């Protein structure tokens, strides 16, 4: 993740949510160091919602 952003904000962990159909965003987040830790299926209205699951990703600052 951008070192300047991390330094300015001062948090150790960052979380985000992205839908499974947004593959470009998922690839970008992975390149920035985010990893998936949970996948929550869209139970109702999948066609109307336009996705099958919400993906939760986390980035943790290196300790040390």
TrEMBL record:
The record's annotation in Pfam families points to:
FR47 (PF08445)
Gene3D superfamilies according to UniProt: 3.40.630.30
| Gene Ontology molecular function | acyltransferase activity, transferring groups other than amino-acyl groups
UniProt-recorded name of the protein: GCN5-related N-acetyltransferase Rv2170-like domain-containing protein
Domain GCN5-related N-acetyltransferase Rv2170-like, by residue range, is 12-37
InterPro entries according to UniProt:
Acyl_CoA_acyltransferase, GCN5-like_dom
The domain of life is Bacteria
